[in-house]
Amino acid sequence: ETMRAANEGQSQLWRQAQAKGLLDAQAQKTWIAFDPCPICLPLSGEVVLVNGTFSNGLDAPPAHPNCRCVTGLV
User: Fold this and answer.
1) Residues with Cβ < 8 Å from 8, sequence gap 6 or more?
2) What is the mean pLDDT of residues 44-51?
3) Is pLDDT at 17 greater than 90 in this prediction?
4) Environment class of residue 63 by beta-carbon count within 10 Å: exposed (0-12), middle (13-18) or buried (19+)?
């Protein structure tokens, strides 16, 4: 739950920055996998728009319990 909260806070920050014109509307984020498991390995390095969803249907990690992945701006 800690990772979910941290990633959601980051996503909200980027959306607010876009709304204020501080972040380009076409800004992109990437899935950053730490010690990737078989679930996260295919997502590692995937790039989508800040408001987009990744190929697993999520807009941010975690993808599973104990997931340590994060998102970052490209």
Assistant:
1) 60
2) 95
3) yes
4) middle
* Global confidence as pTM: 0.86
pLDDT band at 71 (very low <50, low <70, confident <90, very high): very high
Q: What is the mean pLDDT of residues 28-41?
A: 91
Query: SS3 helix, strand, coil % of the chain, rounded to 5?
Result: 30, 15, 55
State the Rg of the chain over Cα. Answer: 12
Cross-strand bridge partners of residue 28: 49
Q: Are 32 and 44 in contact (CB under 8 A)?
A: yes
Could you tell me which residues come within 8 angstroms of residue 68 by beta carbon, excluding any fewer than 6 positions away? 3, 34, 35, 62
Backbone angles phi, psi at 59, to 5 degrees: -95, -10
